[in-house]
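Notebook entry, structure prediction.
Reason for the run: the old model in the group folder had no record of what sequence produced it. Starting over properly, with the input documented here first.
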Amino acid sequence: MRHPEVFSEPNAVEVRREVTIVNEAGLHARPCHAIVSLALGFESALWVRCGDKEVNGKSILALMTLTAGRASVLEIRAVGVDAERLVEGLAELIGAGFGETL
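New structure, fully documented this time:
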């Protein structure tokens, strides 16, 4: 899924990173909300992939369709001028288990 309007930014970069879900309950409503809340503070577009499914990372409902449990590997992909900071922030959030039981 490529969005030409994002790639037309002169300083846009694409950043990808794999992260593993470590919290016991996996990717349920609260972690999805945490991802979207963080992501909405950035200009970059965000996609999250789990297995064969890639969704808009700025949509709680779309993220919930990934049904990603503990130990699932997510690929975070951001495109834009602040993509590196967005991916780093999400990797920290997910790696910390969203503040939930690990």
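Summary: The longest strand covers residues 13-20.
The old model has been moved to the deprecated folder.
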